[in-house]
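Quick review question:
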């Protein structure tokens, strides 16, 4: 039976790198990202279904869940889409709370909403969830408090889901620093370019997906 994956933030970076590897392994892919202009060529390259939209939008979450059911179910949900928050990275003492609230909607509530929407499909097929976390979830890095708080919340949500849903594997993965547009926005293009490319993280994700170890937090490498 062909396996199906839903990947958010799939138009670039780690989401696209993982999608490319799964496509070579025969997976059926549902890809989403905010920008249709970048998402469509990626999906066309991989023969995937492209559904552009904001994962924090309940209407888009419903649309993705309907697409899953139209494709006959789901084996893998990858919550990769993420926001950075206020830039330049501010200290918590002056963090704009409206921006932080939006960041929690994108980085915490949206992944949980998607899990809730597709959980019956994942349960039926013994599927898995990969939530992309960060070392900022556990480390006290100046300026990263807002982003790190959202990732710490995502870690805890993942941990509880793993306990509550024993038939569904749940991994929350810290990929380490990657040369991505998000990192460049945070630290500058020159420093970001010194980090490994997102494709270097894909083998770690494939190992989880293909060998299905116990649910838990995973750090790369």
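Suggested answer, residue by residue:
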């Amino acid at each position: 039976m062909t396996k199906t994956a839903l990947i958010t933030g799939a138009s670039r970076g780690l989401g696209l790198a993982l999608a490319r590897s799964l496509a070579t392994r025969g997976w059926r892919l549902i890809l989403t990202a905010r920008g249709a202009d970048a998402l469509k060529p990626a999906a066309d390259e991989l023969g995937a279904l492209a559904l552009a939209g904001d994962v924090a939008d309940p209407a888009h979450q419903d649309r993705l869940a309907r697409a899953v059911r139209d494709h006959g179910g789901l084996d893998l949900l990858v919550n990769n889409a993420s926001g950075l928050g206020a830039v330049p990275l501010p200290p918590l003492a002056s963090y704009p709370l409206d921006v932080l609230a939006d960041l929690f909607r994108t980085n915490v509530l949206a992944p949980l909403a998607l899990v809730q929407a597709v959980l019956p499909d994942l349960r039926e097929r013994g599927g898995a969830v990969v939530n992309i976390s960060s070392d900022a979830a556990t480390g006290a890095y100046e300026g990263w408090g807002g982003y790190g708080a959202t990732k710490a919340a995502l870690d805890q949500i993942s941990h509880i889901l793993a306990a509550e849903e024993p038939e569904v594997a749940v991994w929350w993965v810290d990929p380490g620093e990657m040369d991505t547009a998000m990192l460049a926005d945070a630290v500058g293009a020159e420093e970001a370019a010194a980090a490994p490319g997102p494709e270097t993280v894909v083998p770690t994700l494939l190992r989880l997906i293909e060998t299905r170890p116990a649910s838990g937090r995973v750090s790369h490498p």
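Why it works: The CA atoms of residues 133 and 191 lie 21 Å apart. The domain at 4-219 is CATH 3.40.50.720 (Rossmann fold).
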